[in-house]
Design brief:
With 261 residues, this protein is an alpha/beta fold. The chain folds into 2 domains: 124 residues, Rossmann fold (3-Layer(aba) Sandwich); 123 residues, Response regulator (Rossmann fold). Helix content is 47%, strand content 20%. It has a 5-stranded parallel β-sheet with strand order 2-1-3-4-5, sandwiched between helices. Strands 7-6-8-9-10 form a 5-stranded parallel β-sheet, with helices on both faces. About 4% of the residues have low confidence.
């Protein structure tokens, strides 16, 4: 795998580069900040970026958003030395594919790398076979249709792949709550995956309007936080459950199996 490292600590860059190289990965760049990240991506074409959360200039979240806008197919693992409990959920909501805290052991990094690789491989495998879903007589789509509403392009792509792997046909992907309401009205999907934090209209505001527009649709919240109060609020508004970010195949497949049979 082609990996880029962005961390303002030179020792950390060296440690990670040595570890990744020893595992057979190609370290295509190691940088102290994310300035000019769009051009760096074009020059080095990474598949995964290990990104420090606290950086001089633009912080990790701002850089993550820039990466997603430039190339949503690139996975980003956020790393931080902060003990702030909310950072992981914030990073996941912003589209991070993985997360680990410093200091860390080699086993933790390997576990996170494997999880990210497995998720993207499964999603991409389904994307390659997407033509099968449109073939007459295909078994794909046997569990009905779905709309995905998330403002993050990477999350939309991965979730699309994982849902299609479960036999669900994706009829539309949108990036805010207002568009989700219209998509629900137009398609009357069996499932609608709804991000909570979105621009224009967030998931909580859109949820009851989606149910009004398409009463038979099962609305599933997509979130980086499993806060009990938030989960209860979503359930009270009509959501049937939630999928946690970062997305993982086993969790998504198990959830869809339980939801749709």
């Amino acid at each position: 795998m082609r990996i880029m490292i962005i961390d303002d600590n030179a020792s950390m860059r060296k440690v990670l580069a040595t570890l990744f190289s020893s595992l057979g990965h190609d370290v295509v760049g190691a940088f102290a900040d994310g300035n000019g990240i769009e051009e760096l991506i074009r020059q080095t074409t990474p598949e995964l970026i290990c990104l420090d959360y606290h950086l001089p200039g633009r912080n990790g979240l701002a850089i993550l958003r820039a990466i997603q806008a430039e190339a949503p197919e690139i996975d980003v693992i956020i790393m931080t030395a902060s003990d702030d409990a909310g950072i992981e959920a914030t990073a996941a909501d912003a589209g991070a594919s993985g997360f680990f805290r410093k200091p860390f052991g080699q086993a933790l990094i390997l576990e996170e790398l494997r999880a990210v690789e497995q998720t993207r491989r499964k999603a991409n495998h389904t994307a390659v076979d997407s033509q099968v879903a449109r073939t007459p007589g295909s078994q794909r789509g046997r569990r009905g249709t779905a709309v995905i509403a998330d403002d993050n392009g990477s999350v939309r792509l991965v979730l699309k792949g994982l849902l299609e792997e479960c036999g669900v046909q994706i009829v539309q992907m949108v990036s805010n709550g207002a568009e989700a309401i219209q998509a629900a009205r137009n398609h009357q999907p069996r499932v609608l995956c709804l991000d909570i934090n979105m621009p224009v209209m967030d998931g909580l505001e859109a949820l009851p309007k989606i149910i009004e527009a398409s009463p038979e649709t099962k609305v599933v919240m997509v979130t980086g936080s499993a806060d009990k109060k938030l989960v209860g609020q979503c359930a009270g508004l009509g959501a049937v459950g939630y999928i946690i970010k970062p997305l993982r195949p086993a969790y998504v497949e198990g959830f869809i199996q339980k939801l749709l049979g």
